[in-house]
Amino acid sequence: MANKLDTKDVISDHYDLKVAKEYERKIDNSKYFSHDKGDFGEEVTKIVARDSDLGKDVSDLFQVGRNGIDAAFLSKGPPPKLTIIESKASDSASFSYSNKQKKGGDKYFQGMVNSKDPRYDSFKDNLEELMEENPGLKFDFIRVETDIKITDIGFGVDELQVKEWKEID
Fold first, then answer.
1. CA 86/CA 166 separation, integer angstroms
2. Per the confidence metrics, is the pTM higher than 0.70?
3. Which of 7, 30, 62, 147 could form a disulfide with 158 if both were Cys (CB 3.0 to 4.6 A apart)?
4. Is residue 78 part of a domain?
């Protein structure tokens, strides 16, 4: 029986989830289980982005190790759009967000871009360059929540939702 997910802010109908819902892979026992769950969720997120034509994967512009944005995709438009994605994965349909993430995607992203934290030093320059190369750039902030099930293969998708990433109660 599937876990019941919170349906507030759900916009899944705007995205192609078919292939992502069928995704499975082996569990990587060389990693912490929680890190591997998170990695699986990010893999599912990238499938959703690809199949929903969100554009080119530019995630590496806003990532440093396990820090930064989970995924970022640039579509040429018009108008061009940068979709910033927070990926959450759980095996109990319980998705935890930090206090900063609960403020919404825009505030969370701007917090990193304007941070004095040296891990995020390149983010501001990378964003400015994207904005110069893509005049009129729009931003979209979404959350992809993957409820994981354990299958014969390893990890599988039990439930999958895409939500607006605005302020979270």
1. 11
2. yes
3. 147
4. yes
Rounded Cα gap, residues 70 and 106, in angstroms? 14
Number of domains in the chain: 1
Classify residue 5: in a domain, yes or no: no
Round to whole Å and give the CA distance between 108 and 99: 9
Residue 38's φ and ψ, nearest 5 degrees, are: -60, -40
Q: Are 146 and 93 in contact (CB under 8 A)?
A: no
Q: How far apart are CA 119 and CA 64, in angstroms?
A: 7
Could you tell me which residues come within 8 angstroms of residue 68 by beta carbon, excluding any fewer than 6 positions away? 62, 112, 119, 120, 123
Give the residue numbers spanning the domain of 63: 12-164
Is 169 part of any domain? no
Strands 138-150 and 81-90: parallel
Does 4 map to a domain? no
